[in-house]
Each structure stands twice: as structure tokens, then as C-alpha cells.
Design brief:
Number of strands: 0
Order of helices and strands: HHHHHHHHHHHHHHHH
CATH superfamily of the largest domain: Hypothetical protein af1432
Oligomer: single chain
Number of helices: 16
Shape: flat
Strand content: under 5%
Radius of gyration: 21 Å
CATH topology of the largest domain: Hypothetical protein af1432
Number of domains: 2
Length: about 325
């Protein structure tokens, strides 16, 4: 018996009857030989962790565009916080922690530069519409490894695709990540907003603070404990009604006070214009894209507009700004 098979047997013995077992995965798009050491979901986690899309998250906006400070979150630190919260919940509920981690690490692989501003920009100009959760699956399955993709399991792809608020993950592990994503960004975006001086604890109604906690740490603790207590030995992941209502009230407050705050979003219009300008340029000049995206059009018959979306959505904030300057800002003349 291989090490992998022994781990699969331990999953059957130790995990909840509602957990997703590695041995029972619905499989991959392309059949491949199993690893002797790692389970299917562990392999997915490792493939995502070592992907180029994952590394680029380090220079992609979470909320604050080009913040002047070392401690503001970016898309990578957000991803890691989602993973930590989700693993804590999964371990307490005896769910498959490897599956949870793979979904969490991969859920934002397709996110655009400049956060949701970039996402809205591409959605405005691309005829097929653009959503980061769909692009995250595409980045993993179509774009990585020069078009070969990561060949992830069905369960991981389903969790990534359905991590959005309106999603409906097929596994409890996917449901854990869906909640953890929201908990993470409400928690850390509020922390960043307080650091930036655009939000204070006094902006939260006293009734919410009494219900959920007096600070970000206490509220995070409330949400995690509530999910665990209300989901233990049940076939669905859920908060208690009062805490869930309080959570969505807090999220709505964050939209009014932070996500839609003109001070926070002061540069967003420029970011949107930049992304739209890049889209216009590369649809008119596809040969100016990196070779792999040109090959996607020529060798894999990807529609030009889709390839341009792939190229731009994969850019980091800094790379997008560099390309914009290269294309649209005149260079100073000098004699060589």
C-alpha cells in the first residue's frame, strides 16, 4: 500500500461523513497516473501554489490602490488569510483540509490588476462579459503551463467557480471557502481602512458591536466559532440567523463606508480607464502581446478578444502601468 493510499484510508476513518474524500474525487478532465505520496487534493494544492498565476497575486490590489505603507493587504495576503480561516473551520468540522486549502489558494487566480475596478473595466468592454471567478478556473485549466493547464480535480474547480456570494458549492469544503472569503475581506479590509484613517470602530452601530464584538479580532472570532457551532455534524455550512444577519449588515456598512468611499476610490477611475485603454490597444494590436497569448490565438484558436482579456487579467498592477506608459506616454528623445 502506498503512502497516498494510507492517507486515503485515514481520511475514511477520521473525517466527517459529510467530508469529501480524496479517493472519491470525480476526477480530472484528463486522466493521469496517481501520485504515490500525495492525495489528489494535495496535488491540486501544490499545483496552484507553484503556478505563475498564484505568484502574481502579490502585486494585485485588494482594496487600496498603490497604498503607501507596508502593511496593507494585497490579493496574495487576502488569499492566505482566506486559506487560514477556511482551514481552521475545516479542521474543527473534520472536513477535508487539503481540498479546502486548494480551493482557497486558487479562488482568485484570475483576478485582474487593480482589484474589482479592473474586473468592472474588462466586463464593460469584453462582449462576452468578465468575472474573476470564471477567469480563475480558466487561468488554472487553460492558461497555466503554456496552455496545458493544471488539470485540477472537479471538486477544486467547482469550489473556485462558486466562491462568489451567489455561488452554490457542491461540497462542504467549497461552502467553507465561500464563507471564509467573505469573512476574510470584511475583517482585513476593515483593519486596513482603520489604518488608512477612513473608518473607525465608532462607525459601527453599537448594536452590531454588542452582537459581533468590539474589534476586528473579536468579530473574526465570533464568525468562525459561530460557523463551527452551527455546522457541526450537519450536511451544510451555515451561521446562526442572528450572526448571519449581523455579518451581512456589517458587509453592507463596509460597502457604504469603504468600498464606495470616494477617498478610497479616488484613483479608481484612472485604473478603469487604463485597463480599457490596454484592451483597446491590444485588440487592435494582438501581436504586441506576450508570445504565449499570440500563440493562444494562432495555435489554439482562442478568439482575439478572449486572449486580450486573458493577457490583461493576468497582469500585475505594476506591469499594467508599465505597459500603459510604454504604449501611451511619449519617451524623451536622446542621442545614442
Amino acid at each position: 500500500m502506498t503512502i497516498r493510499e494510507k492517507m486515503e484510508e485515514r481520511e475514511k476513518e477520521l473525517l466527517s461523513p459529510f467530508a469529501s474524500l480524496s479517493a472519491n474525487t470525480r476526477g480530472r478532465s484528463r486522466a493521469e497516473e496517481e501520485c504515490d505520496v500525495r492525495t489528489a487534493f494535495q496535488r491540486d494544492r501544490d499545483r496552484i501554489l507553484h503556478s505563475k498565476s498564484f505568484r502574481r497575486l502579490e502585486d494585485k490590489t485588494q482594496v487600496f490602490l498603490a497604498p503607501q505603507g507596508d502593511h496593507y493587504r494585497n490579493r496574495l495576503t487576502h488569499t492566505l488569510e482566506v486559506s487560514q480561516i477556511a482551514r481552521t473551520i475545516a479542521k474543527a468540522l473534520s472536513l477535508n483540509e487539503d481540498l479546502v486549502e486548494a480551493i482557497a489558494l486558487g479562488h482568485d487566480l484570475g483576478h485582474t490588476p487593480f482589484g474589482h475596478a479592473g474586473e468592472r473595466a474588462l466586463n464593460d468592454v469584453y462582449p462576452g462579459g468578465f468575472a474573476h471567478y470564471r477567469q480563475s478556473v480558466r487561468a488554472a485549466e487553460v492558461l497555466e503551463k503554456n496552455g496545458k493547464g493544471l488539470n485540477l480535480t472537479w471538486e477544486v474547480k467547482n469550489g473556485i467557480l462558486n466562491h462568489r456570494s451567489t455561488g452554490s458549492p457542491a461540497t462542504l469544503e467549497g461552502q467553507v471557502v465561500r464563507y471564509s472569503d467573505k469573512i476574510a475581506y470584511v475583517h482585513h479590509d476593515m483593519d486596513d481602512a482603520q489604518r488608512a484613517g477612513v473608518f473607525t470602530e465608532d462607525d459601527i452601530p453599537i448594536t452590531l458591536r454588542i452582537l459581533l464584538g468590539e474589534n476586528t479580532r473579536d468579530r473574526l472570532n465570533t464568525f468562525v466559532h459561530d460557523i463551527i457551532e452551527n455546522s457541526l455534524e450537519k450536511p451544510v455550512i451555515a451561521m446562526s440567523p442572528d450572526i448571519e444577519e449581523g455579518f451581512w449588515d456589517l458587509r453592507r456598512l463596509m460597502f457604504r463606508s469603504v468600498y464606495e468611499n470616494p477617498v478610497v476610490k479616488g484613483e479608481e477611475g484612472k485604473a478603469i480607464a487604463l485597463v480599457k485603454s490596454l484592451y483597446s490597444y491590444y485588440t487592435a494590436n494582438p501581436d504586441a502581446m506576450s508570445q504565449e497569448y499570440q500563440d493562444s490565438i494562432r495555435l489554439r484558436n482562442t478568439p482575439k478578444e478572449q486572449a486580450v482579456c486573458d493577457y490583461i487579467s493576468g497582469m500585475t498592477d505594476q506591469y499594467a502601468m508599465d505597459k500603459y506608459r510604454e504604449i501611451y506616454i511619449p519617451k524623451s528623445w536622446h542621442v545614442y
